[in-house]
Structure formats: structure tokens, C-alpha cells
Task: structure prediction
Amino acid sequence: MPIIKSKYKAQFFLKNPHVQTILGFFLSKFRVIASNLASTPLFKNNKIQIKKYRERIFTPDEDFLDLDWITAEIEDCEQSGTARKRTSSRLRRTNDRSVLKVHEDHEDDENAEIEDCEQSRLVIICHGLEASSQGAFEQCLAKTLYKEGFDIVLVNYRGCSGEPNKLLKSYHSGKSEDLKSVIDYICAKKKYSHYRDIYLVGNSVGGNIILKYLGEEGFDLPSQIKKAFTISVPLDLASSSRAMARKENELYMSKFLGCLKAKIQDKEELLTREINLKDFSKLKNFYDFDSRYTAPLNDFSSAEDYWIKASSKPYLNKIQIPTYILSSLDDSFLAKDCYPFSEAEHNKFIFLECSSHGGHCGFIELNLRGISYAEQEVVNFLNSD
Result:
């Protein structure tokens, strides 16, 4: 498709990319806190209640993924005269963070009747590096889409839900097979058969995983998957990793490495003698970390081999559904090779918007609704014909 001219105009004090990146994060955190404290329900209609629950699914290699659902629970449906089946739940504290845990057998009730009033549109949200379903950006996006009438499921990558995964293998920036496991599970289960339109939305690393998955599946994509929207995607991991090693990104790099180190510590008992935490402080960038951990833990021969095989850019020409890629040209996390102008021009399914400003997942916009430009663009694209 032709390149889309961006409509995003940053105020003069938001033209610094680091202001956008950092302030955008803290504004999202504030929005989440304010929303959690608010007493006003999202819906004025008392028949609709918010239902949140966690579901654990298992991968083909016998590891697990935790999915956090946000759906509308219909207390009384005039169309069917029946109530939606309830799910018992309890609140558990995990890593000093409240997580809604669900106890259910995960088996389909073959006699369950799908009511006509159930929501047919579902958004699958994939989070960024070292985030989770509880991340500020992900929570704001989920709340915005939920208010627009979508059911939501937020995917937690391996080890990101508050509990270490079972295997030595970790999640990584190109682990599209886990997204495939999630989608195949949802599409195969009778209890989710009312979701006729499924959309994929992801930021940063989550966007890379989505784009790679779409290209890998190509014409074999499940028919329920209708559109995708990605934000600030490092779709060329080699150049993005080099960009992240620059001095201007030292603060972000330190934060990421600290979080990644914690993941390694969580699995210390599983680690072999060749892979340990000795001299971790000497690791200064993604090349160091990926060479020592990501590549050997996930069967790549080197960091470079991992970056090549995990990048989504080579798969863009195979995407067969409408897919929006929103990036900022001043994003300090991205390099020139992360802007797929040529790929967008040669694939009618790709919509590429590159704004002059916006930082990494920033796109701050001062408006009465309090949502970012990126969130509004997601809503507009998913609702468009």
C-alpha cells in the first residue's frame, strides 16, 4: 500500500524522543492507577460486568503460557434469556503484584450453548520486552479497546506472568511459535467459537512477534484472524540492537538488562555450568546478553544468527491480511532498517505510518479522553471496513 502520511503532531515540548518515551510510560502508569481507583463503572448498563480471569495453556514442548482475559459478563441477555456461565476466581499476590487467578479445568463443556449476545470480536495483545499483561502500556490499550466493545486477551510470554517457565528455553523477540500456540488454542476451542473476528495488536517486541507470525502463516492463517496493528517495532533486530547500544540509550539498556538478569536468576537451578550469572555485570548491551544467554538457550548459533532468524522484516512480503505498522522516525530504539518503506510499497496488505515524532511507544496526545495517538489509531483501524 502507499505510505500513509502521519497525522500525528507533537506539541513543541514533546518533540524530544526521550521525553515521549519516558513520559509516555509514566502517563500510562498514571492512567492505570487512576482507572483502578475510579469508582465509576466502565459501562452504565448494569447488566454488563467486567470479568477478568487467567487461563493457563500448554505449548507443544510441554511448557506453559498464561493468558489474561478481559470480557463482558452478561447478567441477563434478552436475546437468549440465559446467563453467561460464570467462572470462580480468587485474588492471589504474586511478586508484590495483584494477579487474578482462575481455577477451572480448561476442558470444553460440549453441551454449553453459545449465546447470540456474546461478543464476536476479540483482540489478542502481545506485550513488549520485559513487560507483561500487567504492563502500563498493555493495560491502557486493553482498557481502551474494551470500552470500544472488544473482548481482550493479553498474552504473557514464557516467564513473564509472575512465575518462571518450566524449561531452560526462554521467550525471545521472535518466538512466534508461542503466539501460534495461543491462536490455535483459541480457534480450536468450542467455548471460544463465538469469536468470529480476531485481531492482533502488539508493541515493540510484541509487534515483531506478530509480524513474523503473520508472514510465516501466510495463506494458512486461520480465517478468524482479520487484522493486525503493531507499534514501534524493531523488525530488524540486528540494527535495532546496535541502536540500543548507543550512549543515548544507556538508561533503557541498563533497565532491560536488570530485568533480564532477574529472569535468569529465577531459573538459576535449571542453568548448566556453561550458562550462569558469573560476571553478569560485564554485559553491557543486547549483543553481550544474546550471545551469552538468548542464543544458546534457544538453539541459535550466535547473537547474529538469532537476530537474523527472529527478525520479522523478511516475512513482511508474505503477510496476507490488513496490517498496520506505526513507527516514529525519532525512535531511539530503532535504526534505518526498521522502517519497511519498500516492503510496504510492494505489499497491498501493509499500511505503514511513520511520524516525525513520538519516541518509542510514546505518541502522547493531549485530549479529553486521555488516550494516546497510537491507541486511537488502533481503534480506528480495527473498526474500519
